[in-house]
Amino acid sequence: AQSVTQLGSHVSVSEGALVLLRCNYSSSVPPYLFWYVQYPNQGLQLLLKYTSAATLVKGINGFEAEFKKSETSFHLTKPSAHMSDAAEYFCAVSGTAGSYQLTFGKGTKLSVIP
Amino acid sequence: EAGVVQSPRYKIIEKKQPVAFWCNPISGHNTLYWYLQNLGQGPELLIRYENEEAVDDSQLPKDRFSAERLKGVDSTLKIQPAELGDSAVYLCASSLDRGEQYFGPGTRLTVT
Lengths: 114, 112
Hints:
The complex is a heterodimer of chains A (114) and B (112). With 114 residues, chain A is an all-beta fold. Chain A is built from no helices and 11 strands. Chain A is globular, with a radius of gyration of 13 Å. Chain B has strands spanning 5-7, 10-13, 19-24, 31-37, 44-50, 53-56, 65-68, 75-79, 88-95, 102-103, 107-111. Chain B is globular and about 35 Å long.
């Protein structure tokens, strides 16, 4: 079984500030990990994914995430927030290598203050 | 390339009424997923199809929910009868085999 915990249901940052969204996972097998973004009234869009290659993963829109096995974490970062980054972000885990059956966290809503 | 198409986008019904949602996956994608997303929550898988076969429907409440994927392309998810607690967003996603999932915009259901 696998699970995801996202710390902070709502995060606010100033435009230009660092974005840090936290995700911790639990998995009985080597995990695949994902970050998705959801804009209002839209479906989920894949930002980036970790599939056991490089531990630092770069995604779209300037986001990146680092897989830390010792901390069971996969936090999402962006050096400089933009107004267009305001959205809800979901971390997800696939507990079986090669399978994309996803278990999602509850999401973190990111607000960007001008 | 067209993405995953869902209709309707919004639906308001009274409790005990039936409702159906339709999904057209990305062309060539043989795997189709239906997710339930409650307010303030992440999506939860209801059912997964590989071609015409429902390979994982363990989370589908079978007393009132049903789904079909005739010919392995479009899919329909039905609720009969709807309850107040069914108010949520119903997301459809598709993938090629077990690859990356692409999500549709969802259908927002309100049961009054």
